Amino acid sequence: MKYFGTDGFRGEANAGLNVIHAYKVGRFLGWYYGQEHKARIIIGKDTRRSSYMFEDALSAGLTASGADVYLLHVTPTPSVSYVVRTEQFDCGIMISASHNPYYDNGLKVINGNGYKLEAEIEEKIEEYIDSAKDTIPFATKENIGCTIDYAIGRHRYIGYLMSLATRSFKNIRVGLDCANGSSYSVAKGVFDALGAKTYTIGMEPDGLNINDGCGSTHIEKLQEFVKEKNLDIGFAYDGDADRCLAVDDQGEVIDGDAILYICGCYLKEKGELNNNTVVTTVMSNLGLYKALDKAGIAYEKTAVGDKYVNANMMEHGHSLGGEQSGHIIFSKYAVTGDGVLTSLMLMEVMLEKKTKLSELRKDLKIYPQLLKNVKVTDKTAAINDAYVLYTAKEAEKALGENGRILLRESGTEPLVRVMVEAETQELCEKYVDSVVAVLEDKGFVTV
Question: pTM for this structure?
C-alpha cells in the first residue's frame, strides 16, 4: 500500500505525513463508521510536538463527517485498544511513531475489537486520500460531531492494569524508563499503587525528547540506572508504550525473546500456556528456539510485526506471543502488545517463584546476532536478485544448524534488513558483510 505499512500510516510530520492526510483520514473514518449511526471514535496520542497538531486535524475531519470524538490525551497505544473494545467505540486512533525520533509521527487505526484496522479499509482510506474529488458529504446542523474530554478512559485502563497484579510489590526496588513518552502518564502510578519502591527516568517530555537517548531503544541508560541505584529490576518502554524490555538485577538486558522464554516456562508450569505453544517472529534468536525445545515448548514463527503474531494467536488460540523488540501479547489480558502489562507479568513470575530475573533466564543462551539495515533504491528487486539470494544461500549452508541468515524488506522504510546469527560475532560480521557487498556490487545501495 502507498501510505499504510505494518504499523499504520507513518512518516516525517508535515512531510511524509501531513495535516491534510490526517484530516482526510478523519473524514473517511467519521463517514465510514457513521453510515448507520452516529460514530463514536476515540483518539490517543504520545508526547511528540506534532501529536497535538495531528489530534486537531483528525478531530476536524471526524467531526466534519458527523462523528463524536473522545480524547484520551497522552496515553499508551494499548490503552486505546483497551478502551475501544471495552466501551463499545467504533474505532480508535493512536497518534504515534512508536520508537522513531520526535520529528516522525504516525496514525495507528484500531478497529472496534481492539485490533489493528483491516487492510481492506486502509486501502479505501488511501483511495480517498488520493481522490481528486471529495465524495464524502459534510455533516450539517445537529449532525456535526463534537469533541469530548475522555481522560476517564485512561484512568479505567490504569485501574485494569492494577487489577491484574496477583500480589503486592512491597519492598521491590523497580526502575522505569518511560522514554519521555506515553508511559510517563501511566507506569509510575501503577507501580506506586502496587507498593513498589519506584525510581524513574525519561519522565520529562518536552515534545522533542521522546526516545532521545532513553527508552527501550537505548536500554543502556536503564542498565546504568539499575546498577547505580542497586535495583531489583528495571523496565524500559518505547514512545507509545506498546513494547517493553527489562533489565535484571545484574544489569543485563532481558529482551523480548527472553521475556517469551521466562513467561512461556511459567505459563507452562501453571497449565496456562495454550496449545503448549509460544508464537514468535522470524527475527527471534536461534537460542530461544533451542531453549524452548529443551523446555518441551512448541513454537510458531510469523512475519515480523505484532499484527502477524496476533493474527496467528487469534487463529489458533495461543496465549503468548511476541517479538524480540519487546512487543509481547498475553491474549488472556489484551489483544495487542502492552509494555506496562508485560512488566506486570514479569513481576508476577519473579514474585510467584521468589526468584530473581537473572536466575529465571539462566538456561537461555542467546546467539550473537548482527542486523544491518541497508538503504536501497528498490527493496523488492534487491531482495529477489538472483546473486543476492545465491550469496545468502551459501552463507546458510556454511552456518548449518548453529546459525542462520535472514533477508527481509522493511515494512516502513526503503531498507533491506540483513540479519545473521552464528556462534561468534566474527561469523555474523563475515556473512552479513558478504551479502551487503553483493548489494553494493549490484548497484542497489543508496546513500
Answer: 0.91
